[in-house]
Amino acid sequence: MSERTMRRQVLLFLSVLCLSYVVGQVSYSIPEEMAKGSVVGNIAHDLGLDLKRLKSGKARVYTGGGAQYIGLNKERGVLLIQERIDREALCGETTPCALHFQLILENPMELFRVTVEITDINDNTPSFTNAEKRFEISESAVIGSKFVLQKAIDSDIGINGLQQYALTPTDNFALKLENQADGSKKAEMVLQKPLDREKQNHISLLLTAIDGGEPQMSGTMQIFINVLDVNDNAPTFAKPLYRAKILENSPKGTSVTTVSASDKDIGSNGELSYLISPSKRLLYELFKIDSKSGEIVLIGEIDYEKANVYQIDIEVTDSGGLSDSTKVIVDVIDINDNNPHINIVSQSESVLEDSPPNTVIAMLSISDPDSENNGKVQCNIDNNIPFKIQTTLNGFYTLITEVALDRELASRYNITVTCSDEGVPSLSSSVTLTLQISDVNDNAPVFERSSYEAYIVENNTPGLSVFTVKARDADWNQNARVSYILEDSSVNGVPVSSYVSVSADSGVIHAVRSFDYEQIKDFHFRVKAQDGGSPPLSSNVTVKILIQDQNDNPPQVLYPVQTGGSLVAELVPRSADVGYLVTKVVAVDVDSGQNAWLSYKLQKATDRALFEVGSQNGEIRTIRQVTDKDAVKQRLSVIVEDNGQPSRSATVVVNVAVADSFPEVLSEFTDFTHDKEYNDNLTFYLVLALAVVSFLFITCVVVIISVKIYRWRQSRVLYHSNLPVIPYYPPRYSDTLGTGTLQHVYNYEVCRTTDSRKSDCKFGGAGSQNVLIMDPSSTGTMQRIQSEKSILDEPDSPLEVRPLH
After folding, report:
1. How many helices (H) and strands (E) does the chain have?
2. Rounded to whole angstroms, what are the CA distances from 548 to 301, 454, 469, 527, 542?
3. What does the alpha-carbon distance between residue 618 and residue 523 come to, in Å, rounded to a whole number?
4. Which terminus of the chain has fewer CB atoms gathered within 10 Å of its CB, N or C?
5. Is the pLDDT of residue 285 over 80?
6. Tell me, what's the pLDDT at 125?
7. Rounded Cα–Cα distance for residues 793 and 199 (Å)
């Protein structure tokens, strides 16, 4: 507020005290809410003080510790506003409102009292404690009813304070003001027109409080009136009759329809409750009505065939007991809601697989409670099974076999019979019949292979498991139980059962004996597999056993022949060239394969630089020119070894005479023989020879007589029979194909003299070889030859050799 518009009153009181300082008093009046820095008054002028005095006296304002709203400007000598002054905050409703403080000077000390009155301005609007006020008034309230309203508050005072109230609109209520002892006004709202909730259930009023300031200010409060209801209206249904339709297969909880009633009242008076009139108990079991919403729902199962229409009486009541009623007619719509019923009249649990076609398996009864097309039924089964279904009488069907059955293809059938009606949509039912196919022994055992071939190493342990034959029977149970039987046959005239045996249960073939590859290399037999059916079925298979060779025979030297008393020497002329064939060591091995591959090595020799042995053919040849210095007697030790694992060997001693004439050789070897072997044991050999000759003589007489009798009988038998004579040859030394190491033709030459001690025997073979055998006793030599011949002629196995033509 400027100084020109400010009303100012200055009162100056000066008094001189008895003391040494002067006391004065000055008063000012200012309005509230002046801006900071505004001039309150010229205190220097009003107190008659010079500005220099203010400065020299260190003038200051003293408030006594309170807030300092007003300050002193010593340069100008005026009082200024330092803080905003709010009269309502400073003094409230107290009047008048003033600030008291002192102005103090020094040298000399002076004190002046200053009073500043704060005047009110209209800076506060009337206001209500609550922005709104709510009333609940019954529509049955009488005219003249009073309702006290809240007072408004205005912090200003005097004319700026609250002066009056106004209420709008005034259709139902009027405002009544009453003065209070404290000067305030009491406001009341008076009902001057009856209320009707059905017409107007809410009334909104505005109460305005107005002050008298300039400019005039006001405050408002919203008044909301909720008109309370009175039960003066009965509920009413919207329709006197309701119609609804529902499908007969509707699930529980399906909404049928909703009835609706209204009540003009509200609150508890307008709360409606729906119920089904207790006329028929059946309706309670089928339908239920929501007491609040009036929705009728299905709670039971309805069937068109039982009832096609229902009439329901519905009542509605409010909380005051007023009520109304209506009818609901429910039409049931018929649909195809019944599946065909399948009843098994008769059923076979099993059938033989050889049953003829059209054998009846089951009889079925089919029914459908629906009518017309909904009750017409057609039945069928899967197409990929050997059965068919056909109708007989009305509603009866038979399930029969269509073709012959085979348990081995399918031992059980799950036959699903499906029956469908002609409704829309079509409904169907199905039943599954389980049929077991009983087995008939119509399948013979079948071996896993058409033939078997097994290997067994010779010299096996009797009872050794060779291998197993296996047959399977497609039948079942006892008909599929397979037993194995060894069929009767012979191998080289010997029953096969003496070679092998077969386990009847497992089909394991065992070796009965120990096999010898040199006697039998393979053999065949048949095994029969027989099932346990009645009659039993069987099949057989051929089994071939191959004997595998072992290196169980050492090589046997055929030439040169090793004798105990005679000495065999090969003659080599001194003119022999390099590579001259001295002789050939001939050996055989009765084993086969690599076990019979023979190799020859020179083990020892009188002169290793003169002879060598062919490793593959056993030929002994000279490897240098024979000279006159070479000794006449040459002794060679040759080892023959096979290729088996482990290998076996035999050793032969070959005597070679290096000379151009026989006399030279005879003299050398005769001395050697007599000196080495004969003379030292002459007495022993004479005694032994006498005993042996005597025994042999007696034995020979007996044998000769027996042989003569035997041959005479054989000749008589052969003379009267047409049996062919088959010659037998020793298997170990026969070589019909020419693959052995022994040549087919070998010449023997015997030279005898009158002196038996000087007899000799010469062996001549293919090639120009000279062989000399010197035997001190010719008789002994011939006996050994005869014994060797008898050994070679003795049959060792019943192998048949065809004679050459």
Report:
1. 7, 57
2. 89, 10, 20, 22, 19
3. 35
4. C
5. yes
6. 82
7. 152
- Estimate to the nearest angstrom the gap between the alpha carbon of 555 and the chain centroid: 66
CA pair distance 599, 608, nearest whole angstrom: 18
Structure token digits, residue 130 = 């609550």
**DSSP state at residue 498:** G
Which residue has 């803080």 as its token pair? 83
Each residue of 128-178: pLDDT tens digit? 888 898 988 888 888 888 888 888 887 778 777 778 888 988 888 898 888
Q: What are the tokens at 230?
A: 């009175």
Q: What angle do CA 171, 174, 179 make, to 5 degrees?
A: 165
If you write DSSP's letter for every residue of 218-246 in order, what string do you get? EEEEEEEEEEEP-S----EES-SEEEEEE
> What pLDDT was estimated at residue 790?
37
CB 574, CB 628: distance < 8 Å: yes
Q: What is the pLDDT of residue 564?
A: 58
What are the φ/ψ torsions at residue 45 (nearest 5 degrees)?
A: -70, -45
Strand order in 78-81's β-sheet? 39-41, 78-81, 70-73
Please tell me the distance from the alpha carbon of residue 731 to that of residue 591, in angstroms, as a whole number.
Answer: 12
What amino acid occupies position 323? S
Give the per-residue pLDDT at 302.
87
- Cα separation, 134 vs 153, in Å, equals 19
Q: What CA–CA distance (Å, rounded) separates 639 from 601?
A: 5
Q: Which pTM was predicted?
A: 0.42
**Residue 762's pLDDT band (cuts 50, 70, 90):** very low
Amino acid at 600: Y
pLDDT digits (tens, 9 = 90+) for 305-356: 788 889 999 999 988 788 888 999 999 887 888 889 999 999 999 998 888 9
For the residues of 40-84, what is the DSSP string, one character each? EE-HHHHHT--HHHHHHTT-EEE-TTS---EEEETTTTEEEE-S-
In angstroms, the CA 184 to CA 161 distance is 10
Indicate whether 768 pLDDT > 50: no
Rg of the chain on CA atoms, in Å:
76
C-alpha to C-alpha distance for 266 and 276, rounded to whole angstroms: 23
Higher pLDDT, 447 or 195: 447
Q: What is the distance of C-alpha 727 from the center of its chain?
A: 76
- Round to whole Å and give the CA distance between 218 and 206: 12
- Please report, for residues 177, 459, 541, the alpha-carbon distance to residue 337 in angstroms, rounded to integers and kept in the order given: 80, 86, 66
Q: What is the C-alpha separation between 116 and 553, in angstroms, rounded?
A: 156
pLDDT at 103: 86
Of 583, 725, 566, 558, whose CA–CA distance to 640 is shortest? 558
pLDDT band at 298 (very low <50, low <70, confident <90, very high): very high
Q: What is the DSSP string of 323-353?
A: EEEEEEEEEEEP----PPEEEEEEE-SEEET
For residue 18, the model assigns a pLDDT of 29
Strand partners, 209: 165, 219
pLDDT at 716: 67
Average pLDDT, the chain: 79
Instruction: Label residues 187-211 b or e (16+ Cβ within 10 Å = b).
Output: bbbebeeebebeeebebebebbbbb
Place of tokens 């009645």: 534
Do 184 and 177 form a contact (C-beta atoms < 8 A)?
A: no
Question: Which tokens belong to 270?
Answer: 């307008």
Give the C-alpha separation, 146 to 749, whole Å. Answer: 177
Contact of 649 with 561, CB cutoff 8 Å: no
Q: Given CA atoms 616, 617, 619, 621 in this order, what sign does their dihedral have? A: negative
